[in-house]
Inverse folding.
């Protein structure tokens, strides 16, 4: 049965808010905020997310002060179930796409004198799928391409440089419900960055403590451990997560990072 458009499907609405802290061992502390709104219609779910982050000023490992100026991004997402009984009786196939725009700026200074300012703007596009051969198994993946244009100003030499680059991201993964309250998941991500290519593995376990209400999870996210907890209700919930060293590429400049995030959401 095709489910691209279902007359009579009840519209639903939802929203969430997220606050996070990124603390570098030898660099600034970033604060992260995002607000998401979503609506389920007869032709799929539409979602938009607005994000903001900024930081204080701290000394880096290379002897300069660094500060992330207020930075913003907007994401627009659509997703829908396309069909049932595609390969197996009772299976389901979902597809989705996303576009995003962003801007960011980081300043480096020495003895309170600005020496370098780096500004960038970017946009991206992504398409993906989720296939559910059964209620206990999920298989998914997506491909994304992101374009970035940057300008770096050196106030000591009074020179400016411009650059543009593109990044490709491919991610595939699967999850499996091994017991009524136990879930295992594993993802592989490939990044084609401007100056390097790298693969990353994400794996974890989620364990229900109270069915449909309280869950704990832990695992490995690319470069370090992660853990968290979720509390869920009929029309909302709360989630908290911790990650260690998610930005290993910045270790030489800002040190290892720790991330703590909290999210609340509601739907009606």
């Amino acid at each position: 049965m095709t489910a691209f458009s279902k007359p009579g499907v009840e519209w639903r609405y939802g929203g969430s808010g997220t606050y996070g802290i990124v603390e570098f061992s030898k660099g600034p502390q970033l604060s992260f905020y995002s607000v998401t709104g979503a609506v389920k219609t007869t032709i799929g779910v539409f979602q938009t997310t607005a994000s903001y982050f900024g930081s204080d000023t701290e000394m880096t490992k290379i002897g300069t002060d660094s500060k992330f100026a207020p930075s913003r991004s907007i994401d627009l997402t659509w997703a829908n179930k396309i069909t049932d009984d595609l390969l197996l009786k009772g299976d389901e196939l979902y597809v989705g796409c996303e576009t995003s725009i962003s801007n960011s700026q980081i300043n480096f200074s020495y003895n309170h004198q600005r020496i370098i300012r780096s500004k960038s703007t970017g946009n991206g596009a992504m398409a993906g799928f989720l296939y559910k051969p059964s209620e206990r198994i999920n298989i998914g993946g997506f491909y994304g391409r992101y374009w970035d244009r940057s300008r770096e100003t050196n106030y000591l030499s009074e020179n400016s440089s411009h650059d543009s680059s593109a990044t490709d991201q491919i991610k595939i993964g699967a999850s499996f419900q091994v017991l009524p309250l136990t879930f295992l998941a594993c993802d592989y991500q490939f990044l084609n960055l401007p100056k390097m290519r790298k693969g990353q593995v994400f794996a974890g376990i989620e364990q229900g403590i109270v069915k449909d209400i309280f869950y704990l999870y832990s695992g490995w996210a690319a470069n370090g451990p992660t853990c968290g907890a979720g509390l869920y209700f009929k029309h909302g919930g709360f989630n908290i997560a911790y990650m260690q060293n998610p930005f290993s590429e910045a270790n030489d400049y800002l040190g290892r990072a720790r991330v703590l995030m909290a999210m609340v959401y509601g739907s009606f």
